Amino acid sequence: xxxxxxxxxxxxxxxxxxxxxxxxGYTVPHxxxxxxxxxxxxxxxxxxxxxxxxxxxxxVSLSDDMFGRPALGIGVDFMDYSNVPLHHKDPEDFPGRxxxxxxxxxxxxASAKRPLVNNxxxxxxxxxxxxxxxxxxxxxxxxxxxxxxVGARAALxxxxxxxxxLKIGRHWTVGLSTVLHHYSNGRFRxxxxxxxxxxxxxxxxxxxNPDTVIHGPYEWQRIKKGRNLKFNKHWYVDASVSxxxxxxxxxxxxxxxxxxxxxxxHRTGRYKLxxxxxxxxxxxxxxxxxxxxxLGLEYVYAPIGDDVQHWENMRGIDTPYQDPHGISIVxxxxxxxxxxGIHVGFGYYLKHExxxxxxxxxxxxxxxxxxxxxxxDHRRFYIGYxxxxxxxxxxxxxxxxxxxxxxxNFKQ
Length: 412
Hints:
By secondary structure, the chain is mainly beta. The chain has helices spanning 2-8, 32-37, 62-66, 220-226, 249-257, 305-314; strands at residues 14-27, 43-55, 71-80, 104-118, 122-135, 154-167, 172-184, 195-207, 234-247, 273-286, 291-301, 325-337, 340-351, 364-373, 381-390, 393-405. It has 6 helices and 16 strands.
């Protein structure tokens, strides 16, 4: 096979790796509601296959050197939550029915592995992953009514893990890893408690064409000096607009708790999506090739006040009309790798947009997501998405379009 011969050649531009792993873990009851539903054994098992590539030789870019030559990958995870028992609700209404379960999550994902220790014997570091998981047993009001965790067939996976590998030959490594997995549909559908689990595993990796050069992850300053690279620190303005769709939790609780069992929409899992718009203007300071930080002012327009008031009042909760405007201050931080930006934000509401009775009441929120810089106007336009949350409870997804005024870009 010509492709295989090329992959094994030392002239290949990338070190291609195939990784297989087995995991076991603990499903974390991350809220009072989750604790009431998760009963007994919380142990899960999982398997994964991953194909990754790591730049070598002439293909190593400045971004690769800056991040310690990360391994980028695509893969499939198979996580089995079906043996985690759920509290059997109203068994008298469903004689003979087995208790519900969360099913199995089959996830297609992308990952980035960042070495922190890399020598001739050991490779250790951390990795992040994101993907789309498909549940074999999502919520169904008749056949799976206790699965409050996965309310839709598809959910977003976010993973953060650490690994340690022992090199046992030129091509083979074996190692251990631990990872935090989080599945959520971002309130597109209810119920949606989301799945949180802490998993540990063993894995083996085969590298088809290993790099003969050992590259330490902390060599960036030496490399930068050797290449005589100069960097001009500078300020710039980041302006963005985001669309934030979500279903109302107040409507969900009305159909769950305030309707009779013979109501056609009692405990339904389908709700109307409501859309909010957010704009953010941030003053950013780029202080290195990789990093920029800054502070922004965000305005949110959420025309859901009438709907929130309606559904809360239907539930017997006296709720006045709330105007649709919200304002917050947001601290931003971004790490840039080639055309990809990894963005996190920490915000504080000066004035909330309409809130629901069952929303998290914290004025502090977090965002985390990815940006892709389009090859236009020196990579100043970007598209991206964030997961917006308060604590460990997701508020919604943000789908973002932005432009950075005055940003200087450098060879990647």
